[in-house]
């Protein structure tokens, strides 16, 4: 991990019509970190990720990736190395595992590189390799989450953003998924921005975190200190 900022969000304001979803957001991620954004339903977590990914336009502020503004077009953000695994996975349910993965590598033309990327994803998720020709919609929830992450990895992101990867999964499957997130960070060197309602599991693997409350960052700290913070414990970990 380094002190070099891979992402910097400055004074970000985002609206949906008259709804002010994000208020003056300032945050950053250092190269190689796992950073988590924690917040309740409607806090603005998905809006933040979607805006960084170029899917939602901002009203004011800057999003700098490797010190250069991120264009407000999702395919251009992918070109720059930013990939989002959206909430609810959004895999292509009528396509096979391999076809879903191929779509993730849409910027890549060389078949030798694409084959190498398949191998990388299959090494990380052997379960997907066993199911190469299975239709996406018939995979279990955990397998669909693996496929969504694998599809994003096919674009070789420098920054991988995950929107509630634990949603709807059984505890044992969540543990497995979070081990894979750590492995992606350590072995592939991918910087991770992780959005979660499940504060405990997110802080357990993160270096730092931000608490988002009704569109504002209210607390920013190291993950271990957030874990010990009584406000965080009561509001997001169910500890009184
Ligand atoms: P959740 O955990 O429930 O997904 P979240 O923290 O990701 O919540 P967002 O989905 O970013 O929160 O929503 C932030 C605010 O913006 C909420 O008040 C929400 O109602 C509003 N919002 C989100 N999407 C839209 C939209 N397409 N149109 C209008 N308002 C929206």
TrEMBL record:
ABC transporter domain segment(s): 7-239
InterPro entries on file: AAA+_ATPase (IPR003593), ABC_transporter-like_ATP-bd (IPR003439), ABC_transporter-like_CS (IPR017871), BCAA_Transport_ATP-bd_LivF (IPR052156), P-loop_NTPase (IPR027417)
Pfam families linked to this entry: ABC_tran (PF00005)
PROSITE patterns according to UniProt: ABC_TRANSPORTER_1, ABC_TRANSPORTER_2
Gene3D superfamilies: P-loop containing nucleotide triphosphate hydrolases
Record carries keyword Hydrolase: no
Keywords of this entry: Amino-acid transport, ATP-binding, Nucleotide-binding, Transport
Top-level taxon of origin: Bacteria
Gene Ontology molecular function: any one: ATP hydrolysis activity
GO BP annotations, alphabetical order: L-amino acid transport
Keyword ATP-binding tagged: yes
The family this protein is said to belong to: Belongs to the ABC transporter superfamily.
Identification of the protein by name: ABC transporter ATP-binding protein
Organism the protein comes from: Paratissierella segnis
Lineage: Bacteria, Bacillati, Bacillota, Tissierellia, Tissierellales
């Amino acid at each position: 991990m380094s002190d070099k900022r891979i992402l910097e969000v400055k004074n970000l304001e985002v609206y949906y019509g008259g709804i002010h979803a994000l208020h003056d957001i300032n945050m950053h991620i250092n190269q190689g970190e796992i950073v988590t954004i924690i917040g309740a339903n409607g806090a603005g977590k998905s809006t933040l990720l979607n805006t960084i990914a170029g899917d939602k336009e901002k009203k004011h502020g800057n999003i700098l990736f490797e010190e250069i503004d991120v264009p407000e077009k999702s395919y251009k953000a992918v070109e720059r190395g930013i990939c989002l695994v959206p909430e609810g996975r959004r895999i292509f349910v009528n396509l096979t595992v391999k076809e879903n993965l191929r779509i993730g590598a849409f910027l890549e033309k060389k078949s030798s590189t694409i084959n190498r990327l398949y191998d990388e994803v299959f090494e990380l998720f052997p379960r997907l390799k066993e199911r190469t020709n299975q239709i996406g919609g018939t995979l279990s929830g955990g397998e669909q989450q693996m496929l969504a992450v694998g599809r994003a990895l096919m674009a070789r992101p420098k920054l991988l953003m995950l929107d509630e990867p634990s949603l709807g999964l059984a505890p044992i499957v969540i543990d497995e998924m979070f081990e894979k997130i750590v492995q992606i960070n350590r072995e592939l060197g991918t910087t991770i921005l992780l959005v979660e309602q499940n504060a405990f599991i997110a802080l357990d693997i993160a270096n730092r975190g931000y608490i988002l409350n009704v569109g504002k960052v209210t607390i920013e700290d190291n993950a271990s200190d957030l874990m010990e913070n009584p406000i965080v414990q009561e509001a997001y970990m169910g500890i009184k």
